[in-house]
Specification:
heterodimer; A: 181 residues; alpha+beta; two-stranded antiparallel sheet; 5 helices; 5 strands; 15% strand; B: 435 residues; mainly alpha
């Protein structure tokens, strides 16, 4: 058993006065410094100023696209299965492309339930879902406005935010050469 | 005018003033708490609430608070003891407003043969009245804790009552030493005595005849005890959030919570007034007793205007810096408001300077000495009170909370013996000096 030795207070510390005075001087130093030099305070006025997020920030989701602007997603449901918050709702539909079996007719992410764990990104075999849009303060006036649909999630230029952080994944292709996303 | 009628009106007006004083201090104190804590922690503090673009550096948040608290549902829990549950907040608030009635704001002034007093009541029991009223404040806490019928409330109320009763002893004893020195309990006499200079064994020392110099130990004991009496950090065990959720007012909502909240701040205002009156000379300007100020109105004006120049300049500078800091963020009225207030600060300094220069070229009117003296003394008291208000905020955001056993050890094993020793030393000293 380890006995934790608690530091004993010395005589002058037992009176508290000196120690209190030291603490008061520290806080007063902050007050005077901040009053005379308000620019020195490490403050960001949030809605107007935003902190630059690091390039690897895990932000909100986006759905990646093929070259013909159709979703890479094949509605395999792996992300929805992996999701611990059950925030991904997918409805599959048959694809017109004979090389692709299915397409998501509906792909909704309920941001009110999402816990930003990133399991969906890890689960996806096609690199169809990414969490690299640098938006972390997600707010809305209605609940419906925070359920992101397919159109919203695919509304981007399909480029890598930072190429070196999104290396091509080893993907096992099962549908022939034309299925390449 | 009849002398009695004059006195009656005087007392009535001063009573209203002294009831309104703490009420006016409360929103300011809450603002000071928020802004002070922010600045101590390197933050900006509240600056978002606005009325048509006017934000008053976060003062408008008080309006938001009031609206929020009034709009909330006024709940009475079904398991609470109704009558006492309702009585507690009103009791707290009433008791916290009473002690200020006997604090003099300035020396009595001669007006057309009458003596205009700046004190609502002048009881012969004086300081004892304050002690008795403030000790009744503990009932509000106990009643709230018990009548809520909630174990956290009860624990908070219990702790708080134990703490207040323990520290009342050293508070009372530290005042006794002061009363021995000043040979009386009447507050106006105590303040009047503090106008002169300190004399020790026949020598006049360059210190004012203040309680803090006569009773330094008593002053510290009183200060610490008043922190404990007002349930203020580092002695705010009554509402230790981590242990008791919110303490004795956990079951209170809406206006009833607002009353507790206001009573807490009002108590602190009263404590600040008490400390400055008893130990820091009250309305007395250091080194310039009332007689000197009345005989030399030019000196009074110089002190007033000099204070105005310093305060206005400092305020204008600080506001200008903070306005520059936040300029990039806002548009329209919001952008210019801080600059306008900065200009008001500099303008106040300029006007003080102008008044000072102007007064050298004209003869002062007959009423000037009395009015100027009363004004200067009120401002002097106000500065002292504001300092102690700031001290309450300052200490709260510096110190962690005491543990319960540490609190009791400090109260009973350190402060009580010290107070008794202080009493003994004071008594011996007075006895020696008399012979």
């Amino acid at each position: 058993m380890k006995i934790v030795e608690r530091p004993e207070m010395t005589g002058s510390q037992k009176l508290y006065l000196g120690e209190v005075l030291k603490g008061l001087l520290v806080t007063m130093g902050h007050v005077l410094r901040n009053l005379m030099n308000p620019k020195g305070m490490p403050v960001i006025f949030f809605p107007e100023q935003k902190k630059a997020l690091p390039p690897t920030t895990r932000g909100r989701h986006r759905l990646m696209k093929r070259e013909d602007e159709s979703p890479r997603c094949t509605a395999c449901m792996l992300c929805a299965t992996a999701c611990p918050a059950e925030c991904i709702h997918i409805k599959a539909a048959e694809s017109a492309d004979p090389n692709v079996e299915k397409l998501p007719e509906k792909f909704e992410i309920d941001m009110l339930r999402c816990v930003f764990c990133g399991f969906c990104v890890d689960a996806c075999p096609l690199d169809a879902i990414r969490m690299d849009v640098p938006e972390i303060a997600i707010a809305g006036y209605t609940r419906d406005s925070l359920v992101y649909g397919k159109e919203f999630l695919m509304d981007h230029d399909n480029k890598d935010i930072v190429p070196e952080y999104n290396p091509p994944r080893p993907v096992i292709w099962t549908h022939g050469p034309h299925a390449k996303p | 005018m009849d002398n009695h009628l004059f006195t009656l009106i005087n007392i009535a007006v001063m009573t209203v003033v002294m009831w309104l004083t703490p009420l006016q201090f409360i929103p300011f104190f809450i603002w000071l708490e928020r802004k002070g804590s922010a600045i101590i922690q390197d933050r900006i503090g509240p600056n978002r609430a606005e009325i048509f673009g006017v934000r008053l550096f976060g003062m408008v948040h008080n309006f938001a608070d009031v609206i929020k608290l009034l709009m909330k549902e006024n709940i009475t829990p079904s398991h609470a003891n109704g009558f006492y549950y309702w009585l507690a907040p009103f009791w707290s608030m009433t008791v916290s407003l009473l002690p200020l009635l006997i604090i003099p704001l300035a020396a009595p002034m001669e007006v057309a043969g009458h003596s205009l007093r700046f004190q609502a009541a002048n009881f012969s029991v004086g300081v004892l009245y304050i002690l008795s009223i403030t000790s009744m404040g503990v009932f509000g806490v106990i009643l709230a804790g018990w009548a809520s019928n909630n174990k956290f409330s009860l624990l908070g109320g219990l702790r708080s009552s134990a703490q207040m009763i323990s520290y009342e002893l050293s508070m009372g004893l530290s005042v006794v030493g002061l009363l021995m020195v000043f040979q009386g309990v009447k507050v106006d006499a105590i303040v009047e005595t503090q106008g002169g200079l300190l004399t020790l064994a026949g020598h006049t020392l360059p210190f004012p005849h203040w309680g803090i110099f006569l009773q330094p130990v008593g002053f510290f004991l009183f200060l610490v005890a008043s922190f404990a009496e007002t349930n203020r950090n580092p002695f705010d065990l009554a509402e230790g959030e981590s242990e008791l959720v919110a303490g004795y007012h956990i079951e209170y909502s809406s206006v009833k919570f607002a009353l507790f909240f206001m009573a807490e701040y009002s108590n602190m205002v009263v404590a600040a007034f008490l400390i400055s009156t008893l130990f820091l000379g009250g309305y007395q300007v250091p080194f310039a007793p009332t007689q000197v100020l009345l005989q030399k109105p030019q000196l009074t004006l110089l002190l007033l205007c000099g204070g105005g120049i310093l305060a206005g300049g400092f305020l204008g500078r600080v506001l200008y810096l903070s306005a520059l800091d936040q300029k990039v963020l806002h548009t329209g009225m919001k952008r210019w408001e801080p600059f306008i207030f900065s200009a008001v600060g500099f303008g106040g300094a300029g006007m003080s300077l102008g008044l000072l220069v102007f007064s050298h070229f004209v003869a002062l009117p007959v009423w000037a000495p009395g009015v100027l003296t009363a004004l200067l003394q009120m401002i002097c008291l106000l500065i002292k009170v504001l300092f102690f208000c700031w001290l309450f905020v300052w200490v709260r955001w510096t110190m962690p909370r005491f543990r319960y056993d540490q609190l009791m050890n400090l109260g009973w094993k350190l402060m009580l013996p010290l107070a008794l020793l202080n009493l003994l030393v004071t008594g011996v000293f007075i006895l020696v000096q008399k012979q």
